[in-house]
């Protein structure tokens, strides 16, 4: 049943999903300027989630971040297009930053779908870029130049061999984004330039990017390995070589045990950046900038929790439940929220790791538990610094994931919606002929069998209406785990 089935199983998802829908509608409101109108239109199509957080930014920084994102997305489209010959791709990666000033540049042989349109209509992005103030332009050009050079170097490599190479690649394609964004925030004066001038800020900014990028690389294993005409993989041989002779062996069900061990190793590596990400976010003061930075980070730790020890990563692209993603988006408003959400997901990973430890079946479980301990310590210390206390224990042995969903019974707005929907359907099911007559349709037009099916379906709908709409109870366990079930 897809999203509808999820909402029926988790009624508390309804209000957050509605809120995110309204935010997405707001993000789709386009400016009058033709160049910015195109930029925000294509932004909504290539990344709805980023469009929401970008459009929530205040003032001129919003346009700067939008253009920054699209310029780097265009550069990434060049890098990702495996049909583009290297003799054309390599020099383009090195010179792409200069095209920020070239209103005549476009490509009709690069990318697919919305990305192809982005490349074909790139002059509109250039036009919008040239309307930004020069300090913003300089940051965008500098980061694009450095990223293009890094991508160029890795195109010529057959694979990512070492963890050092892996970190370097992620720095080029994501860490530099974090560095650039920090510079944009400081220039906008929305964040304190003095705070953002601290010596270690670039390292923290880099970790923000690496945490997101490594999560995406882990999650997208199957999508990347199946890419045509040839896959480009970024899992480092130094890690996967301990578990297989070839990286594509993990697709096969017969290799699932080793595949999951390798996956857990990759998750462990990604978790090493979480504490730096927490430190960076704790420095943010402006609400819209905070939400822009924090929402992707809580999504990342949630995605890692879903992926950890989950063999389905090798069968499909594993994602957070849409309703849970919506909850995270609307709940992440302060550093307290971030600490508590990180604690929930870190402890979910830790709970699974402890089970593996007892079985003695995973070679990286000790390192995972150390990473989880470091995240817990950072979160609890942060909460104590805020005078809030950091202890969060799962109730009655429930998994850590249940804590995120622990709240009062189904909200009254959801209960009213459920009652309205269910009562309406029940009335229709038992009065279908009368409804048809009122619309000028002859009685029995749908056939007695169809009417009987509707009447039978109305029985579980009645049960659902009473349980959720009247009693306010959730379907399933009292505190449903928001993390998707994992499977070996």
Observed structural traits:
488 residues, mainly alpha, Farnesyl Diphosphate Synthase, globular
Give an overview in words.
The structure is a single chain. With 488 residues, this protein is an all-alpha fold. Among the domains are: 31-156, Farnesyl Diphosphate Synthase, CATH 1.10.600; 412-470, no CATH class. The protein is built from 23 helices and no strands. It has helices at residues 2-9, 14-27, 34-46, 48-55, 61-80, 86-95, 113-120, 122-129, 134-155, 163-188, 201-219, 221-225, 237-240, 256-271, 274-282, 287-307, 322-331, 335-359, 365-385, 401-405, 412-430, 432-438, 448-470. α11 packs antiparallel against α14, α18 packs antiparallel against α19 (365-385) and α21 runs antiparallel to α23. The longest helix has 26 residues, at 163-188. It is globular, with a radius of gyration of 25 Å. Residues 392-402 and 477-488 have low confidence and may be disordered.
Strand content: under 5%
Number of helices: 23
Distance N to C terminus: 24 Å
SSE sequence, one letter per element: HHHHHHHHHHHHHHHHHHHHHHH
CATH class of the domain at 31-156: Mainly Alpha
Number of strands: 0
Shape: globular
The chain-level mean pLDDT equals 87
CATH superfamily of the domain at 31-156: Farnesyl Diphosphate Synthase
- Derived structural class: mainly alpha
Largest sheet: none
* Shape-level CATH architecture of the domain at 31-156: Orthogonal Bundle
Q: Which regions are unreliable across 5 or more consecutive residues at pLDDT < 50?
A: 392-402, 477-488
Helical proportion? 55-70%
CATH topology of the domain at 31-156: Farnesyl Diphosphate Synthase
């Amino acid at each position: 049943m897809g999203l509808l089935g999820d909402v029926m199983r988790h009624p508390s998802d309804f209000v957050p999903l509605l809120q995110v829908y309204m935010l997405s509608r707001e993000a789709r409101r386009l400016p009058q300027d033709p160049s910015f109108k195109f930029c925000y239109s294509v932004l909504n199509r290539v990344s709805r989630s980023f469009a929401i957080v970008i459009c929530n930014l205040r003032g001129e920084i919003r346009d700067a971040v939008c253009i920054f994102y699209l310029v780097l997305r265009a550069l990434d489209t060049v890098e990702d297009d495996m049909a583009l010959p290297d003799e054309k791709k390599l020099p383009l990666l090195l010179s792409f930053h200069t095209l920020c000033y070239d209103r005549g540049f476009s490509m009709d042989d690069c990318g697919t779908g919305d990305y192809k349109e982005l490349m074909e209509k790139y002059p509109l992005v250039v036009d919008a870029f040239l309307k930004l103030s020069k300090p913003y332009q300089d940051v965008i050009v500098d980061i694009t130049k450095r990223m293009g050079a890094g991508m160029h170097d890795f195109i010529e490599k057959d694979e990512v061999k070492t963890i050092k190479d892996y970190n370097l690649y992620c720095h080029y394609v994501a860490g530099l984004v974090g560095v650039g964004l920090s510079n944009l925030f400081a220039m906008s004066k929305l964040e304190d330039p003095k705070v953002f001038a601290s010596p270690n800020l670039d390292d923290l900014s880099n970790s923000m990017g690496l945490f997101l990028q490594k999560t995406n690389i882990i999650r997208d294993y199957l999508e990347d390995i199946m890419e045509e005409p040839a896959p480009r993989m970024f899992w480092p041989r130094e890690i996967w070589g301990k578990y297989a002779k070839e990286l594509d062996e993990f697709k096969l069900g017969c290799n699932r045990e080793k595949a999951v061990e390798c996956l857990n190793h990759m998750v462990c590596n990604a978790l090493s950046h979480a504490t730096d990400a927490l430190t960076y976010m704790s420095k943010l003061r402006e609400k819209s900038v905070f939400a822009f930075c924090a929402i992707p980070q809580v999504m990342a730790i949630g995605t890692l929790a879903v992926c950890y020890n989950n063999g389905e990563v090798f069968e499909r692209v594993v994602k957070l439940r849409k309703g849970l993603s919506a909850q995270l988006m609307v709940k992440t408003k302060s550093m307290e929220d971030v600490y508590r959400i990180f604690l929930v997901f870190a402890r979910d990973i830790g709970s699974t790791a402890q089970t593996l430890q007892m079985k003695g079946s995973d070679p990286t479980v000790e390192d995972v538990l150390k990473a989880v301990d470091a995240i817990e310590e950072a979160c609890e210390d942060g909460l104590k610094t805020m005078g809030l206390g950091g202890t969060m224990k799962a109730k009655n042995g429930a998994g850590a994931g249940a804590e995120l969903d622990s709240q009062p019974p189904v909200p009254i707005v959801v209960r009213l919606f459920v009652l309205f929907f269910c009562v309406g359907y029940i009335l229709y099911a038992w009065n279908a002929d009368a409804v048809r007559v009122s619309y000028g349709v002859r009685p029995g037009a749908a056939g007695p069998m169809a009417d009987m099916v509707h009447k039978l379906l109305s029985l579980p709908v009645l049960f659902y209406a009473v349980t959720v709409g009247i009693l306010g109870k959730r379907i399933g366990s009292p505190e449903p785990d928001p993390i998707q079930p994992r499977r070996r």
